[in-house]
Amino acid sequence: MSTGFSLLARDGAARRGRLQTAHGTIETPAFMPVGTQGTVKAMLPASVAATGAEIVLGNTFHLMLRPGADRVEALGGLHKFMDWPGPILTDSGGFQVMSLKALRKLDPDGVTFRSPVDGSEHRLTPERSIDIQRQLDADITMSFDECTPWPATEEQAAHSMRLSMRWAERGKRAFHERAGYGLFGIVQGGTYPALRAESAAALTGIGFDGYAVGGLAVGEGQELMFSTLDTTVPQLPQDRPRYLMGVGRPADLVGAVRRGIDMFDCVMPTRAGRTAQAFTRSGELNLRNARHRDDPRPLDPECACPACTRHSRAYLHHLVKTGEILGAMLLTWHNLQYYQDVMRGLRGAIETGTLDDWTAAFEAGQRAGETETPI
């Protein structure tokens, strides 16, 4: 295995693990802040690291368009380019390409699309996606897949999944094995258990360093997402990391960890921070609301981020209402800190065999809290 994964503890289906890569170690369960364009929005790299994040996510599609994979490679790779010395996982670009709809043309070999930036024509195949991720120097490369739309009939989901499995095999052949670098396959199949089982079996047969569950958090709702994980995750190899792509809210992360997921990414904490929303141990807050105008309290008294240790809700409300950039910066830092705190709490609870108690306390805090306008 190119990347080394070891399981350190279990509590039910939940796992506490450690993933070794060329650019460092990742303690799991782990949440990866999203740095789509080579930056985690509104954050300095050192600030991202200060939250406890050990790995960030970049995106093949966006970086191939701007500034270009050749340019990033010539400038020393994505780690040097964005000043992030730790591990990087790159999404293959499949999700972004599929979302273009009118700008793309899909065929069995790959996808031809027009850039939403300048209209120029580009081609992505499984092999090209893998090569771009090599140029970026991603520690974890993702297979190029077709992200099955929601909703989809079983026939549509089956056709999409089987195309992705053929592409996964081609991507595996194109991947250059080297120490500390890994390739993850992506399980597809919509919310159809038989298709998810077929996809998991196909990927396991090909053999990957890790296995992602894709095509969820696209509108199916938490209950259906969890039931899909219940049937899918047990079919994945025990000795490889499992990554749930694009998820999610804190409660989604907790529920997925309890079902055996090890890794997550989502734009939610950073996007929420830029839109005046804060996740806390006592619910979700909207800092635009007038109730915070004279409130001297911190967002979350248990949080160690600068927004909570140095500023009041009143000040954050003021920044938001006046459109100051610092408001987005502080709320983004807070949200990423909170997500990392949730991950730390989960890791500790799994290690000590107290996950049920930890989850009960987490859920009680959310229920008894001050959740305002839904984020």
Task: Give a short overview.
This protein has 375 residues and is α/β, with parallel strands linked by helices. It contains 15 helices and 16 strands. The strands form 4 sheets. Strands 4-14-13-12-11-10-6-5 form an 8-stranded parallel sheet. Strands 1-2-3 form a 3-stranded antiparallel sheet. It has a 3-stranded antiparallel sheet with strand order 7-8-9.
Question: What does this 3D model show about the protein?
Answer:
This protein has 375 residues and is of the alpha/beta class. 41% of the residues lie in helices and 19% in strands. The strands form four sheets. Strands 4-14-13-12-11-10-6-5 form an eight-stranded parallel sheet. Helix 7 (154-174) packs parallel to helix 8 and helix 11 packs antiparallel against helix 14 (325-352). It is globular. The model has no long low-confidence stretch (mean pLDDT 96).
